[in-house]
Amino acid sequence: MKSIRRFPFKLLICYAITMIVLFFGWSVAGTRFFEERLIDLDKDSLYHELRLISDNYVKGYFSKSLVDDKLSKTFSLLHAHYNARVFVIRKDRLIISDTDATVNTLLNKFLPDESELLSQTYTENATIPGLIDEPFFAVSYPIYDDMSHRGHLLIIKYYSDYYSEADKINSTYLPFICIIALLITVIYYVIYRIVGIPLKKSVKAAKEFSNHNYDYTYNPGSLEELILIKNALTYMGDELKNLENYQKAFISNISHDLRSPLTSIRGYAEAMIDGTIPPELFDKYLNIILFESKRLNKLAESLLTLGNTDRRNSKLDITDFDINTEIKKTASSFEGTCVKKQIQIKLEFDAPETIVSADIVKIQQVLYNLIDNAIKFSHTSSSIKISTRVVNDKVFVSVKDYGIGIPKEATSKIWDRFYKTDLSRGKDKKGTGLGLSIVKEIITSHNENIDVISTVDVGTEFTFSLPGKSV
Asked: What's the whole-number mean pLDDT along residues 263-287?
């Protein structure tokens, strides 16, 4: 979140760096580019000029100490046009002409014999220590007369002159660079408008959600990624709202379910102590206190079960067992209750033995909760049908009663913790409202499904699936 808040500042830093790189980089790299380009152009043109001079003017003049006026004028024009210095160098390395000065000195005093200045056509970044210390670019051309090598024509141009020319050319492109800078500015501004401002809005939305303003809405723009962020934040807000509502309902329900038995236990205990309840009735009210204590214990166990089921790292102890046998065992544990309500449990199995792969302890709890629910909401002198059937590699277990049923609008809520329909509250106010939540959590942890079909005053059928195993 902090990095998102700093996005505009980071964008500004990137813009500043881009501008610095653009102008500074162009002033250096651009000048260097044009400098190299000018040298490349001079390579051909200067070589061509030296060849013409060698072929048409210089031949026959090496017997003289100086060239004639016509050749001097040619050198002067070449010097003026290219801003270059031209040398005529005899074979014995004597300079017999220099457009900057007339020199009559052996060149080898300044240039070592091993120097490649005269032996190669092009020489870059060269100097002649003691004569020319400034770096220059040189073009050399040999002079032949009557098939004999007479010397060399050498033309040099200083890198400082190239740099000046390149800098002038580079400066002419400054308006173009300014246009590019303007376009970059527009691009950064558009990025800020498209991304920066919507991100700031998203940050504000996150703050509003953190301040419990879950109804806050905002429009980040039409960019697909921003719409995804908006949807994610909106979803988060809805989930936080639901979580907060659930927490409130949880606290309200748990407080109610704890207060009721505690009030009974305390009231009867105080009545027994202060003599309101006579000793001969102690057994009756002690049994009531014991019953309410069991209710509290059952509530605590249910909460612990939900807590353990919620743990994602909770592992199931998967084994193969006969689900029919477990149904029979669980149903028989309700024999006393069924006798009191005159309820008959009917078992219908596709096969005598139906093997499933599941956590046997947790599935026993599922069966117990479903059968307990069915008995609780069945009419006196009615029946409950429990069946298993195999479809392909799945085993479907059904618990069906013919009791009060569940209203249609409540069927999607019965899996919520502590939820009780008005009908269930009227029928039995002593339940915790956690039984079906536990059932749902256990079946889901097995990656299976549980469904309910119910009609008010007709009955309810719960059906869940388990992975089957061939016998």
From this structure: 82
Is residue 368 within 8 Å of 439, Cβ to Cβ? no
Residue 442: closest CA among 434, 452, 431: 434
Nearest alpha-carbon partner for 374 in 345, 415, 349, 417: 345
Task: State the first-to-last Cα distance of the chain, in angstroms, to the nearest integer.
Answer: 57
What whole-number percentage of the chain has pLDDT above 70? 77
**Higher per-residue pLDDT: 9 or 279:** 279
**Burial 81-105, CB ≥16 within 10 A → b, else e:** ebebbbbbbbeebbbbbbbeeeeee
**Alpha carbon distances (Å) from 333 to 39, 336, 364:** 103, 8, 12
Smallest CA-to-CA distance from 198 within 4, 1, 2, 3 is with 4
Q: Is the dihedral of CA 166, 168, 169, 171 positive or negative?
A: positive
Average pLDDT over residues 455-459: 88
- Calpha distance 328→466 (Å, rounded): 17
Q: Which two tokens stand for residue 393?
A: 């590699």
pLDDT band at 35 (very low <50, low <70, confident <90, very high): confident
pLDDT at 432 over 60: no
Q: Which of 44, 48, 47, 39 lies closest to 136, judged by CA?
A: 39
Give the pair of three-digit tokens for residue 86.
């031209």
Mean pLDDT computed over 266-281: 84
Instruction: Flag whether pLDDT at 65 surpasses 50.
Output: no
Residue 319 β-bridge partners: 358
Tens of pLDDT along 159-184?
988 888 888 888 888 888 888 888 98
> Is the backbone of residue 349 left (phi > 0), alpha (psi -120 to 50) or beta?
beta
Cβ-count burial 339-368 (b if 16+ within 10 Å, e if not): eeeebebeeebeeeebbbebbbebbbbbbb
Q: Which two tokens stand for residue 332?
A: 């028989």
Helices (H), 54-173: 69-82, 159-172
